[in-house]
Specification:
Elements (H helix, E strand, L loop, with lengths): L1 E2 L4 H9 L4 H8 L6 E2 L6 H9 L3 E6 L4 E6 L8
Antiparallel strand pairs: 1-3, 2-4, 3-4
Helix pairs in contact: 2-3
Length: about 80
């Protein structure tokens, strides 16, 4: 699996921006297990959540697509 790394500027910018309504809907479908992105929502929203550091994303050659999991232990369903 290859994991996308965020830059320091992306991290700083993400801290300034709350989730949009669309991002909240997609985030609500996620958990701490790796899940295929095609089951969660549109790729641009998933990418935005990775940049904002709410999700980790990696390409899985076993599944053949990008997979995502919640990044924070202090997330909304913990």
């Amino acid at each position: 699996m290859t994991t996308r790394r965020t830059t320091m500027q992306e991290t700083i910018d993400a801290a300034r921006r709350p989730m949009t309504i669309e991002e909240e809907r997609v985030y609500a479908k996620t958990n701490r297990e790796w899940q295929p992105g095609r089951e969660l929502g549109p790729q641009p929203i998933l990418d935005s959540l990775v940049v904002k550091e709410w999700l980790d994303g990696a390409y899985s050659i076993l599944v053949g697509c990008w997979v995502y999991q919640r990044r924070h232990s202090l997330d909304r369903d913990a």
